[in-house]
Amino acid sequence: MKRIKIKQLFAEAKEQDVVICAWVRTNRAQAQFGFLNVNDGSTLNNLQVVYDSALKNFEAISKFRVGVSVLIKGKVVLTPEMKQPLEVHASEVEMLGDCPEDYPIQPKRHTREFLREMAHLRPRTNLFNAVFRIRSVAAMAIHAYFQERGYVYVHTPLITCADCEGSDQMFKITTLNMQNPPLNEDKTVDFSKDLFGKQSFITGSGQLHGETYAMAFGDIYTFGPTFRSENSNTQTHANEFWMIEPEMAFCDLEGLMDIEEEMLKYVIKYVMDNCPSEIDFCDQFVEKGLKDKLSNILSSSFTRISHHDIVDLLLKSDRKWEFKPSYEDDIAKEHEKFITEHFNGPVFITNWPKDIKAWYMKLNPDGKTVAAVDLVVPQAGELMGGSQREENLDVLLERMEQLGVEKDGVDWYLDTRRFGGCVHSGFGMGFERLIMYLTGVENIRDVIPFPRTPKNCKY
Amino acid sequence: MKRIKIKQLFAEAKEQDVVICAWVRTNRAQAQFGFLNVNDGSTLNNLQVVYDSALKNFEAISKFRVGVSVLIKGKVVLTPEMKQPLEVHASEVEMLGDCPEDYPIQPKRHTREFLREMAHLRPRTNLFNAVFRIRSVAAMAIHAYFQERGYVYVHTPLITCADCEGSDQMFKITTLNMQNPPLNEDKTVDFSKDLFGKQSFITGSGQLHGETYAMAFGDIYTFGPTFRSENSNTQTHANEFWMIEPEMAFCDLEGLMDIEEEMLKYVIKYVMDNCPSEIDFCDQFVEKGLKDKLSNILSSSFTRISHHDIVDLLLKSDRKWEFKPSYEDDIAKEHEKFITEHFNGPVFITNWPKDIKAWYMKLNPDGKTVAAVDLVVPQAGELMGGSQREENLDVLLERMEQLGVEKDGVDWYLDTRRFGGCVHSGFGMGFERLIMYLTGVENIRDVIPFPRTPKNCKY
């Protein structure tokens, strides 16, 4: 008899002899028989195992505690009249690994704050089992979407000496002795002695590198970790997180929005198709109405409207704003909320004032705005940010000079504009932001397996 | 007319009107007509475009240089009698972005050393186009293999304060001013002022974190970047590389080998099915016989033999060894070569002397060896390394003490042995090692988009 996983056992739903390896979630023992609820991690659903006093170690089994790992041999019995479609009648139950009474993950509700302090155990709870399976399946959905369309997945470097986000937000890395670093004559640290021969960092974005690959493969995407060293303690900031950064040659702002919309719908559908129990669980226990929210996205057409027209709309509304809407400024959270409610769905906000956006974004003919686009979605706010890139070298150089961006470190990047440059566009999506959106979980610490935030680097 | 990609155009292989955006690879102009070979990155194969003097900008087109980006409108004409199955007769050819005469990527053979100095341009060559597309497709193959089997993809943290590989091989990261770091009273650096409140690193492995998730989900895998700060300049070392680290609960050494073998065959088949032109290219220009090598793996059954029996075999052979085989020592490169030739295929070497293996590996009943396994393959040598893990807490603690592994930082990890522990196993595979094996490329610098090696952190 070969071991079968519980997910498959439910899928086959037939009478058969099986071997199960799993962990005990609950154990209800009575005088002559008992019920183990076990879970092997293959599915959110527990399997009910019935054992009785005919088993030679019945007494021992009836004392198995929550958390114990077990091997079960038995027969599947279909129970169409019961809540669960089947159960296993055990002919053998063996303890593989014991679990003490003070095991913290007991079958009761634990607060998320409590579980955050045991990040290595929390995936054993239903909530985190659901969240991290959705995270895994959503990652696959992203790969599937891009690979089916011929995009090349590029592993851009994490260690870098140049970065478009500015080095003040980056972690420094070093192999030098920080206690007694080698010094130059002027007493500054002599980074020529460091492993890379100069000061290096871990990156906040793979975009610039990605663009160089888009100029070779046409369509590429990155999917990897990024880092920000900012000391901020909010529900949406972590110092380490994963980003997806696609970049498409011969693609303008309209084409970019087509891709963002199609990709988001694809990922939502993929996750709903492949994680029905997990989405149901989140719908029931995390965000009431989650399923409706996601289904509505699938059938909605995303609004496309300029930043200028959004500000018009905000000013014309009779709301009292904490932050006054302005044609020159960013859109505040309260505005985003109003906008997605007004349009009853996701909204692409395009053509932003150039002074609040990045140097590599395409300058529009008006000379005042850039061809940038943010996607804001109901509840989560900004989910993706992208732009058409400035493909004109002279304009780009002027923008860099205006904004004080150093040319020296990114001369290689400028080659994309020197050698057969073309209209191209890309966007970035924070993966955790997506998972929060897909699960309804409100704190980024609860969608990253081992989150890194200021003063928090346990494990 | 919608833009079509060249890959799809070849796949459809029918007469139709098309719009193509691409880059010029060659331009052969004659008096009344000319031929552009263009590539849009969707496939290794170039498209031949015929243009003639009926076009109003014929003169200009005939001067388009290599590297120029173009928009082409025209009609597909099937050419079954020619080398290429079809060509496009242009009704319009427009330059999108110019390219100067000194463009370094000319249609001639460049050395890999030369191209390494322009990592941002080399994917525009056939070799690197093939290699990095194979890299992308192989990454997808790995995700597909594990996800189809219900494994959960876990993003283990990159920033860490604990590591099983030992911190001497890790990069330190900091937000402190390295010039004037805050000091403790004893003049040591005061890391309590650093962002995480203690000294932190970027990781060399996600295994320990992965194990905690295997104890929740059963089967998990990681796939992410890892770092080693070693100052070594060889063909196979980089300071930043990608690793895959699967971990399976209720899985012993034999089960582990089954998975490694099945996964490798799956990935090879997936890449051969999805990158036929790229594999052909590598077979022709990189490693003669590559295709046969890969096909042979698919049909071979991997040998499984103990380290002890391997040493027997080596000692009994009549070879003169530079490194004398020993029951207590590692297997040298020359031994690996002999072994894979002897068995004419991949070989699992099991049950290694405990003193040369890691502290978390399962101690065998003999007390001398551990249930570790290395997979060595023809030419590439070691491709994967794994083991059954020591699930017995007391034995594990004793091993840690013997090997001087600090318990304090990994107490959370030890919980996997306290709370429902079980037999479990896992392995690590360097992704670059796999790509070198799949392409025949011999230098790791040529299979990473922007490689990081000592003194090399350009881009």
Task: Supply database-style keywords.
homodimer, 459 residues, alpha+beta, 8-stranded mixed sheet, 5-stranded mixed β-barrel, 16 strands, 31% helix, 25% strand
Q: How would you describe this protein?
A:
The first copy, chain A, is built from 13 helices and 16 strands. With 459 residues, chain A is an alpha+beta fold. The first copy, chain A, has an eight-stranded mixed β-sheet with strand order 6-10-11-16-15-14-13-12. The longest helix of chain A has 23 residues, at 126-148.
| Mean pLDDT level of chain A | 95
Shape of chain A: globular
**Most extensive interface, residues per chain?**
A-B, 106 and 106 residues
Oligomeric state of shown chains: homodimer
Q: Major sheet of chain A, described briefly?
A: 8 strands, mixed
Category by helix and strand content of chain A: alpha+beta
**What is the strand tally of chain A?**
16
Q: How many angstroms separate the termini of chain A? A: 38 Å
Beta-strand fraction estimate of chain A: 15-25%
